[in-house]
Amino acid sequence: MDIDIDFANRNIALGKFKHVSASRKTDTGMVAHNTGIYVQHIPKNPLTNLCNIDYKEAEKRGYFKIDFLNVSVYNGIKDNDHLLRLMEIEPIWELLLK
Q1: CA distance 69 to 39
Q2: Of the residues 50, 58, 63, 95, which has the fewest C-beta atoms closer than 10 A?
Q3: From edge to edge, which strands make up the β-sheet containing 66-70?
Q4: Predicted confidence band at 69 (pLDDT cuts at 50, 70, 90)?
Q5: H-type helices in 1-98, by residue range?
Q6: How far apart are CA 91 and CA 31, in angstroms?
């Protein structure tokens, strides 16, 4: 299990605290997971800050991955009041059928 958190710019959030980038195993070796990080102590490559354990194996070992996602729709939000007004608008649900 992991948590997904949406950001307008994930790099700003990532710069706020120490973390290790999650990794995934490929045929050519370990590569960075697109969005996952760990904030707890986990084995890592000190040169790349990349976790030494594939994220699926890390979960089996009890490590907890957090996915920091870039969601560009937030770029248009001016402030908290603007976001609240947008949240009150009923979506045009019929568009999902097109």
Answers
A1: 16
A2: 95
A3: 3-7, 66-70, 29-38, 20-26, 50-54, 44-45
A4: very high
A5: 10-14, 55-60, 80-87
A6: 39
CA nearest neighbour of 36 among 84, 2, 85, 73: 2
How many residues are listed for the chain in this entry? 98
To the nearest 10°, report the CA torsion of 23, 65, 4, 22: -20
Do residues 67 and 2 make contact, with C-beta atoms less than 8 angstroms apart? yes
pTM of the model: 0.73
Distances (CA, A) of 56 to 1, 21, 48, 61, 67: 10, 14, 20, 9, 13
Tally of CA atoms within 13 A in the half-sphere of 74 that contains its CB: 10
Q: Does residue 2 register a pLDDT over 80?
A: no
